[in-house]
Amino acid sequence: MNKQDTRNRPIPEGFVPADRKAPFTIANGPFFEKISDDNKLVRAFYVEPKHLNSIKFAHGGMLMTFADSALAAVVFHETGRRCVTIKMNSEFLRPAREGDWVESDVEVIRSTRTVVFVRGSLKVGQKAIFKADGIFHYVHVGS
């Protein structure tokens, strides 16, 4: 274990705070990330009380927010291009609970000149809890 988050939970080896400055992402984080041995970007977060719904599971909106962020982050990691969501489909498979460490597993399926197709899952341990696929539009971010 290397770093600690604000709730003093150990952050698994190799993960560092995600360097993102978007206000929405900051409000829903903290998110963490690492580059795996096979150069895949993996994002993760701990389910905190602020992420829970009324029955004490991770809120579906939080899982969708995190998945959207993870899909777009992998697009940037693999292509070097920024993107915005056109469409995202999601499937809720199992609940995540407070204290769970949720990790993404994402792959770019196809990239064209203007759009990119991505799919992935969120896991707690080895169990998939959520699946998503999306279409993102490349955007130019500049002054």
Automatic annotation (TrEMBL):
CDD domains linked: PaaI_thioesterase (cd03443)
The domain of life for this entry's organism is Bacteria
Which controlled-vocabulary keywords does the entry list? Hydrolase
Domain Thioesterase, by residue range, is 57-123
Query: Do you know which Pfam families this protein is assigned to?
Result: 4HBT
A GO MF annotation of the entry reads:
fatty acyl-CoA hydrolase activity
Does the entry feature the keyword Metal-binding, yes or no? no
| SUPFAM superfamilies in the cross-refs | Thioesterase/thiol ester dehydrase-isomerase
The record's InterPro entries line, in alphabetical order, gives: ACOT13, HotDog_dom_sf, PAAI_dom, Thioestr_dom
Task: Please name the PANTHER family in this protein's record.
Answer: ACYL-COENZYME A THIOESTERASE 13 (PTHR21660:SF1), THIOESTERASE SUPERFAMILY MEMBER-RELATED (PTHR21660)
Would you identify the family this protein belongs to, as annotated? Belongs to the thioesterase PaaI family.
- Under which name does UniProt file this protein? Hotdog fold thioesterase
Q: What is the lineage of its organism?
A: Bacteria, Pseudomonadati, Pseudomonadota, Alphaproteobacteria, Sneathiellales
